[in-house]
Amino acid sequence: EVQLVQSGAEVKKPGESLKISCKGSGYSFTSYWIGWVRQMPGKGLEWMGIIYPGDSDTRYSPSFQGQVTISADKSISTAYLQWSSLKASDTAMYYCVRRSSGWDKNWFDPWGQGTLVTVSS
Amino acid sequence: QSALTQPRSVSGSPGQSVTISCTGTSSDVGGYNYVSWYQQHPGKAPKLMIYDVSKRPSGVPDRFSGSKSGNTASLTISGLQAEDEADYYCCSYAGSYTFWVFGGGTKLTVL
Known about the structure:
The structure holds two protein chains of two kinds. By secondary structure, chain A is mainly beta. In chain A, strands 2-10-9-4-5-6 form a six-stranded mixed beta sheet, with no helix packed on it. A four-stranded antiparallel beta sheet of chain A has the order 1-3-8-7, with no helix packed on it. Chain A has strands at 3-6, 10-12, 18-25, 32-39, 45-52, 57-60, 69-73, 78-83, 92-100, 115-119. By secondary structure, chain B is mostly beta strands. Helix content of chain B is 4%, strand content 43%. The interface between A and B is medium-sized, with 20 and 24 residues.
């Protein structure tokens, strides 16, 4: 079974750093893209960025470029989303998603269970 | 404001059909046949329901169908069932700068 399992909920203070993870299983981790999607409380979905673990090719939404860093460790089939200095506005649920490789593969399946990040002083 | 425009809510009675629209521009929905739809139940992760405008992944009931005309894509759910009550999001590829954009989501209520 193809699965993406994310790390647990986090509570942080403004200015702190954070790295959340997404572990893929049941498929060849290096042959698919892993993306991240933000959902702020009571709001819709926003695409943040994506990485191809096979060669670490990374693309960011213009809205999130410079705000977060996406990385991957293919040796442990895990992708990461990190912040160097959190803000209260980063409070949200974050989902990782899998995308097939190939220019014509433009859908996300499956989705991880989500990681809730709460930033509060 | 989301990149793609969806109605905030739609409703229908069991057995009826409902259609959810998703309006973009020629740079996203109108420019590519890469629209996908996701279902999200409260407190759950989204689930892929439609990809490439009208294709259904295995396991998705054929009551769910997708289409596109110009800059507007649509998701139609026929034979509404109680378990279809959820939020639905469209998503479109938008080129090699923006990549992918989502709609604001539509809450489907089964009366």
